[in-house]
Design goal:
Elements lengths: L2 H15 L8 H12 L8 E2 L2 H11 L4 H6 L13 E7 L4 E6 L4 E5 L3 H21 L8 E6 L5 H4 L6 E6 L5 H6 L5 E6 L7 H4 L8 H4 L10 E4 H20 L2 E2 L2 E8 L17 H4 L18 E2 L5 E8 L3 E2 L3 H16 L12 H15 E4 L2
Parallel strand pairs: 8-14
Antiparallel strand pairs: 1-5, 2-3, 3-4, 4-6, 5-6, 7-10, 9-13, 10-12, 11-12
Keywords: ATP-binding, Kinase, Membrane, Nucleotide-binding, Transferase, Transmembrane, Transmembrane helix
GO molecular function: 1-phosphatidylinositol-4-phosphate 5-kinase activity; ATP binding
Protein name: PIPK domain-containing protein
């Protein structure tokens, strides 16, 4: 069994059955500690604050325990590791991603200590309280948080991630749409691009590979065309969400935008009459995290011109300015700006309020409002 399968197995076991308590005797404890220490990839995970996440799922997002755990149960006689599908190493942070078999949830590793400690110690309580009272929030809905607190070679050598979050999959429904005829689904991971990115800005990017630069923030060269009501609700949610993040020193978060083609834009082409490309077709009948009821930014908001369906969520809000690694990065960038060339701050070294304002301006710039 390979690395990806062993990590997937450890996550599935933690979600479905939780950490198995050891027998209360010395020999069993010694054997457990020895086997755990020599584990390279299959780490024993605890659920962190499980009661809080269970409360959010059941009482605020209308996700029953049975429905939630069904997404992680292996089917057809498969083993536990086959319940999750590896998506691969994605993003500049080196996080690994898995999806559940029904595509409703993603499992993302949080490998950096500064990030998972920030979420656990600083943001988790405000996040839980906020999400319980803001059903229209665009912050991605996190349904579980897993952590390994035991000494293991895989954790020490960083061969396997020590923490994972489980979150809703904003791309849920894409596979089903493909089976029905294949509407175009596009996605962007958007951050303000006016910041200093060494990979892009030093020597015009010649010192960095194209593979590395391709993992930087995307750019959206179009407009999100919205009605006045949808635009006002969009901006109101972003204002409130980013206010929470800035109050807890978070920076470098992004807007994950999905655009789904809802009708044929070429008047001269022929559309298969059996192909349903209406807005209702892309809204899942059983979204993994609701309310509010569709349409919402989780299920799909129709554009004011009728050409697209948009989904959106705010992701990656785990980088906080007061943690040790961000402080070190800020010192290095400030020194570089002072001694070599002044490029200004990076998105990970600016102040939380300054990042918030640039992020909101970016979102406003991408939206075009069409009054009724």
């Amino acid at each position: 069994m390979g690395r990806q399968e062993l990590i997937a197995r450890s996550v599935t076991v933690a979600i479905l059955w939780g950490f198995q308590k050891r027998a209360n005797d010395v020999l069993s404890n010694i054997l457990f500690l020895i086997s755990t220490f020599f584990s390279l990839y299959q780490l024993p995970f605890d659920k962190i604050r499980p009661a809080d996440f269970s409360n959010l799922r059941r009482n605020h997002w209308n996700v029953s325990d049975d429905a939630y755990y069904d997404s992680f149960r292996p089917t057809g006689g498969k083993n536990a590791e086959e319940a999750l599908k590896a998506i691969g190493d994605m993003g500049y942070s080196g996080s690994t991603f898995y999806s559940t078999g029904d595509q409703k949830y993603l499992v993302k590793s949080v490998p950096r200590h500064s990030e998972h400690s920030f979420f656990r110690d600083d943001l988790l309580t405000p996040y839980v309280q906020y999400m319980a009272t803001h059903p229209k929030s665009l912050l991605v809905r996190i349904t579980d948080f897993l952590g390994c607190r035991h000494a293991a070679l895989g954790r020490i050598l960083r061969l396997a991630p020590s923490h994972h979050i489980v979150m809703e999959n904003i791309m849920y429904g894409q596979e089903e749409a493909k089976k029905k005829g294949g509407m175009d689904w596009e996605q962007w991971d958007l951050k303000p691009t006016s910041y200093f990115f060494p990979e892009r800005d030093i020597a015009d990017g010649r010192l960095t590979s194209e593979a590395t630069k391709s993992q930087l923030a995307d750019e959206f060269h179009d407009k999100i065309i919205l009605s006045r009501q949808n635009a006002d609700e969009f901006f109101a949610a972003l204002e409130a969400d980013t206010e929470l993040l800035a109050a807890h020193n978070a920076v470098d978060y992004s807007l994950f935008l999905v655009r789904i083609k809802s009708q044929n834009e070429d008047p001269g082409s022929v559309t298969d009459p059996g192909q349903d490309t209406s807005a209702d077709d892309v809204v899942p009948t059983d979204p993994p995290a609701a309310p509010p009821a569709p349409p919402s930014w989780r299920t799909g908001i129709p554009s004011a011109d009728g050409k697209h369906i948009f989904r959106a969520a705010v992701l990656d809000f785990f980088w906080a300015k007061h943690k040790v690694q961000p402080k070190l990065m800020t010192f290095l960038i400030n020194t570089y700006n002072l001694l070599i060339h002044h490029h200004g701050p990076m998105s990970i070294t600016t102040t939380p309020e300054e990042y918030r304002q640039r992020f909101l301006r970016m979102c406003h710039d991408y939206v075009e409002v069409r009054d009724d």
